[in-house]
Amino acid sequence: MWNISELPNKLNIDLTRLHDLLVYDPHAPMIFSSGIFLWLFAAFIVFYLLLQRRTTARLMFVTLFSYYFYYKSSGTYFFLLAIVTVSDFLIARLMAHATAHWLRKTWVFLSLTINLGLLCYFKYTNFLGDFFASLTGGTFTAMDIFLPVGISFFTFQSLSYTIDVYRKEITPLTNLLDYAFYVSFFPQLVAGPIVRARDFIPQIRRPLFVSGEMFGRGVFLIVSGLFKKAVISDYISINFVERIFDNPTLYSGVENLMGVYGYALQIYCDFSGYSDMAIGIALLLGFHFNMNFDSPYKSASITEFWRRWHISLSSWLRDYLYISLGGNRKGKIRQYANLIITMFLGGLWHGASWNFVFWGMLHGVALAAHKFWMGITGRKKGERSHGIRRFFGIVITFHFVCFCWIFFRNADFSTSLDMLRQIFTTFRPGLFPQLVGGYWEVFALMGLGFFLHFVPDSWEHACSKAVVRLPLVGKALLLVAMVYLVIQMKSSEIQPFIYFQF
What we know:
Layout: H1 7-11, H2 15-22, H3 35-50, H4 55-74, H5 78-97, H6 101-136, H7 151-166, H8 176-184, H9 197-200, H10 212-246, H11 253-284, H12 302-308, H13 311-322, H14 332-350, H15 354-377, H16 387-409, H17 413-425, H18 432-438, H19 440-454, H20 457-469, H21 472-489
């Protein structure tokens, strides 16, 4: 018989490698498309199913796994998640018992201070320090501050809870575990979507149920998300887009323009692919998230674009910032100013850089201009254009968004201007065939990516229904095949740490 202490030797388990895989690695934070997550999630599902009839134990298990997931993404900074969770849970409880309006305002102000204070310290200290130093003529030495992954998402998500309690739109939870589960739920923890408490909390203690439609839809979203994120986005980024954006002056205008198109597809596939995986994983666990991306490059106006792009963020900015500023209730001029301020802050939310601020301002001005144009032409809110008018609207909107992506992607304005200069002064269209020949794999993936993006919505629904109709074995094989493809593509990231000796 085997002695348990001899098991590692019998299986040839490399304990050092296993340890390295399970602890936080700042050079390889865990995300859905990483090999280690795929293995851990397989083990997680086994325990999750064993606890399906024990609700409290299951919630505790998922919460602990979520904290471990965040530890693998940001190291010991998972304590920030606990601070936000406990403080907002207690604040909401105190707010619910407060009868005086001024006291309720005080509690919600405290929640804003804690959440935005953490966000400002970790994300904007150096940016603001440098800004104020430039205004006063002084000097500022940048501090070595680590930016925890996902802090922008979980602070906004927790804030939506306390603000909704303040507005008396929801009643506060009485169980800290339930709130910890809501804030830390790992599918949406580090990259969204931003899930509203009013949508998620009613699902927490429902009996675990995953229908065949939910399972099939979840598999479809995970597979499509993995394909978008790990195949299209990562490949074209490493093999083409990064080269162009790192040294735009070394390339002709046509190469720079293709690089911009490539980045437009890359960032969409990156963000929406991760969201698709989050929504799909949540469905496999019995939870529903709202759609977060809806083919945004099909938009015929900038207003429509923001109804389709990162829907959870744009709706959060609308409901908690734009409306709080007055929305459209205080006249047209104030409405235009509110749109610009909202997008200014939305740009800053994406990162502590003037490039993000400028990107947000461009979108804010464009939104205000579109509202102004709708007022002149008498078009109603939500009215869709058709035919040739819609076609040109899509072309113009797409290229405006691509223009803005240049400033979003580049680290400084000079590089953005260099790229624009190359596009408008040294275009050289004759190089296009040579470019496609040299990067045919990249252009094949770009063509496939844009094709899949612009196909009719009915095609996607048909594919989703086809996956739903597959037998369980077929769904499992489809998922395993995509996971195998991703692991093969990332073979340098995760090496086997266990093998059997016969």
